[in-house]
Amino acid sequence: MTSLAIETNGLEKKYGRRRGLVDLNLQVPQGTVFGFIGPNGAGKSTTIRILLNLIQPTGGTATVLGRKLGDEKVAVRRQIGYLPGTLILEGRQKVKDLLAYLGNLRGGVDRRVMDDLCDRLELDVNASINKLSKGNKQKVGIVQAFMHQPELLILDEPTSGLDPLLQHTFLELVEEAHRDGRTVFMSSHVLSEVQQTAQVIGVIREGRMVKVQNAKEMHLESLRRVDIEFAESVPREMFVKIPGLKNLNVAGNHVNCDLVGSPDQLVKVAARFPMVSLLCEEPDLEETFYSYYEMAEKNAS
Amino acid sequence: MLRNPFLKFFYDQRVSLLVWNIALVATSVMYVGFYPMMKDQQMASAINSYPEAVRDALGLQDLASPAGYLSGTVFGLVVPTLVIIFAVLLGLKVNAADEEAGTLDLLMSYPISRTSFYVQRAAAVLCCLLDACALIFVAVLLTSRVVDMQIEVDRLAAACLLLVALAAVFAILAVAVSGVMGRRAVAGGVAGAIAVVAYLANSFAPQIPDIEGLRKISAFYYYSAGDPLSKGLDLGHLGILTAAVILLLVAGSYAFSRRDIASV
Fold this sequence. Notes:
A: alpha/beta, 33% helix, B: 264 residues, mainly alpha
């Protein structure tokens, strides 16, 4: 029975009349990569801030790395690497100076690990912090979270601001941490990246956990909006039969719809007609959840 | 320089420290430099024509003697005001600036206790004040020799020590308020307002019989009432100011360690 890196019981955080967290129950086994997802405002950051003692809960209990909230705070934080959701770095100092300071606050870190991280993320350590782009500041955040090779990584929206290539490098870092037996607790509202690395996915909505499942079992079919423009009018009957389409709209030489699941059938049908343009986009997580719940309810009934 | 929050504070404020130290030294030197001119009858009699109450309030009673002159000018209103502004601005940088910038989140997730962080930075602020007042001491001493102004070293040191203590009260007040309130503008406003009220309580309130007693709760009273430039150091007064600093430090540190840190 593996021990739990993070456990919460009935965790609650009230903000006056605003609902923050309501009866949050979470178990993150040691050594897993846990994807903590939910729409904006669901309580992801609030949960994380409570786990890090930045804010106090108004009810419930929690343990982090085996210690109750508030016990051995400094010792626990020594073993955690945290990347805040909104990382804002200021100051007329160089990246390497800031990293040196942060390393010293940790009692020293292995220089080679730090340098290696900066290389892989293509971070210029001689640049001045206040001249960095958002993406580069995010890189600094990632380096300081990983550089001491902590037992537990708590990452709040870690890939925001990173270009796709660096998102890929970041996900490699998560993989490596996992292979080392360390725990990664990662929050995101971008479903696809969580699906690539997490073993367990927990969904939070309006302050409560609504679903926790092994990533493989959970087919959160991503919902995509598809818009195709053809060179000529296309017959509606050809598209109506395709499974997984919702809100299908065929008007003259334009077809748009919401696609759930594999695009295989839709593409094969569309390919029979000369196409001018094809647009495929991933809307926000909220809509993905709605389609997930609708399907779950349909399957249940 | 980058080893801990105490040292890092100096590193971060290096430009500000340089500028303020130069400004304070220059102001002090300038005033002392004017002393020969003040001794000249014309200037002194012009000031003597001000109403008595105004002269009392602004500390301009006896500008002819060196001690009186320094009490009325360098250690009267201008330099203490500047030092207090400097002190409050430094105090605000301890917490509120970080919180607004969102970096407090990150730092508080590190293996350092909130209390240690707070106290280290407050200590750094106090060291900055000590350094500034030490420079003022040296500047006044040297300039006074140049303009042939007789001032005793131990009396001057007493005045500077009390100046540090006075500024420290408002610095640590600013640290405490910004530790609780997180927003520089608000914290600065509160600290500034208290400083102004304290000054008025000591300078103008005594003119009004009903609220004379208000003097005793003003930090400015303990700073100047003992007339350090003429009479030397009043340990009681220094003790009260020091006690106020320690009290504010402990209370502020406790409040900071227990509060929720706002997310940006």
